[in-house]
């Protein structure tokens, strides 16, 4: 059966507007489309393909487990899930792990756990969730409401209650909002979809202190910032702040769908049998691939290499910006970077993404004003240099074209 981009319009629900080209094959940080046109991948499947495409450790794990056992349900446990959970516990603050299929599901579990914990240890009135404007925590109705972007949650009827939003980075506002009703504060230790916003360390420490003061739980959504992307296994390790609950997904599976919620033994006790679950969560196939990804990522050589690659990105982006004057700053850490557009190009992030794609570079946006890069942690230096050369070609064409002709 022959399919192409037009087939999407014929058979798919129109909630996406994918690129004109259709990728069919990937190797490392390079991708080829139906016409065998090559692209360098700085998008990483939206910060998912943490080791690029078809990494031998991941494909080997997939094939080996694929010939053993795919799915059991949670009536049984399985060896890959137990090994992966043990490695996550050993490498982090956590004592216990819950597996799901995505970041949204991991966040849903975290929010439900926080409320159930407070019900067990306090009273029914301590159920208020505080999150931050421009945050993103998934697309379930609960998580999209907690995420502070009304454009994603409006238009679906009454929203879940007991959720309020502060300004990311504004500690005084958060202090005014918190009370004995506060159940938990949920935050990204670096905002992703909201524009690759790196908070001041003092803000994050202040959030932790306020949670302690009000007996509230601190939930870190590390779906995008975790699994080596900032040069540490998780971003909380860079901040000297330990959350009560942490969520992971995206890079956790290296491209295979899996999510995880990590927490302490005391808090975990509130998810007793029957309180929450997932049919596919923790299935052997996903956990085997994620374990292989973890084993590669959690090596000092790989984590140190992330910061060296970041420096190379920043060096070339600074050179490009000196020439074309399109960015106000380069935000982010490690292999999660955002190029913030200046006033002249405000609102045109998607134009930059399309221009790059036309030159053979896959990248992302983070809102209307930030071009986002989330490449493989092990992307070769030559692919970084070549990818940014293609990015520069796209910029050169875009800046020479009047905006009203787009």
UniProtKB/TrEMBL annotation:
Residues that bind N(2)-acetyl-L-ornithine: 139, 278
Catalytic activity: N(2)-acetyl-L-ornithine + 2-oxoglutarate = N-acetyl-L-glutamate 5-semialdehyde + L-glutamate
Entry EC number(s): 2.6.1.11
Record localization: Cytoplasm
Annotated pyridoxal 5'-phosphate binding sites: 103-104, 136, 221-224, 279
Cofactor note: Binds 1 pyridoxal phosphate per subunit.
Principal cellular location given in the protein's record: cytoplasm
Keyword Protein biosynthesis: no
Gene Ontology MF: a single term: transaminase activity
Keywords for this protein: Amino-acid biosynthesis, Aminotransferase, Arginine biosynthesis, Cytoplasm, Pyridoxal phosphate, Transferase
Record-listed N6-(pyridoxal phosphate)lysine modification sites: 250
Protein name, per record: Acetylornithine aminotransferase
Organism lineage string: Bacteria, Pseudomonadati, Pseudomonadota, Gammaproteobacteria, Alteromonadales
